[in-house]
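Chain A, query sequence.
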Amino acid sequence: MSVAIVAMTTDNDYGHPVFKWERSVQDTILSSFFWGYILLQIPAGMLTGRFGGKVFITAAMLVTGLVNLVTPFAATKGDWMAVCACRILMGLSQGLLYPSLHGLLGQWAPAAERSRMGTFVYAGAQLGTIIEMMLAGLLSSGPWGWPAVFYVAGASCLALAAVWMLLGASTPSTHRWISKNERKYIETSVGSADISEQKKMSTPWKGIWTSLPFWAILLAHSGQSLGFWTLLTEIPSYMSKVLGVNIKSNGLLSALPYVAMYILSFVFSWTSDFLVNRNIISLPTARKLFNTIAFWGPAAALLGLSYIPAGHLTLAVVILTLTVGLNGAHYVGFLISHIDLSPNFASTLMGITNGCGNIFSIMAPLSVSLVVKDESSASEWRNVFLISIAFYFLSNLFFILFMSGKVQDWNEPQPAKTLEDGVKEVEEVDSSNKSKTIVEKF
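Chain A, predicted structure.
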């Protein structure tokens, strides 16, 4: 929604409200989404592991759609504080999304297809970003103005929620139209317990927090969140203030890097599965290789971008496209690695790393407010890019050193005993004692 926020503060020819928000207010609005987003990450991961992801994904999409529809009204009545409230509520609902998706992948994605399936799922976020950035610029400059951006987004979300409710399922065993052969193949390949079995498993907190491979994912997720969300939320402002791109062209040019990311993510995922399935490289090596492309590639490109003189629009767009495009490799790097470590607790691991990582997402637009005092100054924006470069480099270095592609021992802890289990054990002991007594009598 960064293009829409820019549009809300830009003069138009159709009489739509224009909000003269300062840069710090705009960044507060952009970051407010994450205030709600981080709160439900860990609870969502744990609940998904017990009850499946379908219901939580449905709730996230419905709430997000409804909040988008009321945002224009809220903005005109309550100014920027009401918009913040809407984005906080939107963040709360979408906090259910990624842990639920990871829980679904843990149930549905066989190891040999995991990179591709993970990319198909998570690249959808970039497809949505592309559509939003392109349409937001066009809609905002048209007669319906910036409110149309929120109306279209809200209606689309509600429509997709209806499709998901009809076609989606938490596990192969609960899908209405899956064939027996496909269900058997998936259930024997994924390496995770069914939802009914996961309900009896206690979360291995000690094993998780003492696992260096888990910490490697956590730090990589944090570095990705800061670097990527700095780009996502600030590219429209950078193009508008430094490069002088108008709002209509801004949406189209801002979307171009994410088109590259969307396309390249599939190239990376198919290449990764090809290399691993042909035993050319091991799974841990593949995860580290593509995570390095996703982190150190953009870091190098950003370094070049930070020294481009103002006015070189074509070169800047090319480097931004390269920066974001290479980052598409993270789908087959750290982002899918939770399932490699623990298919049974992938949703919980994602809840932890996504929650912690998005603390850095909150910092992204706020750090720009602290660093950039003159929005037209290329040298001040250079400092923003250098911060992202440092996080990309250091977090990937830790990932290379400590990441493992092996399923961890704590993936299958002892199931938590229920009252029913205890009664059964007592009955078995009594039955055994009675048998021994009968044998001794004879």
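The chain has two domains: 1-173, 200-407. The mean pLDDT is 82.
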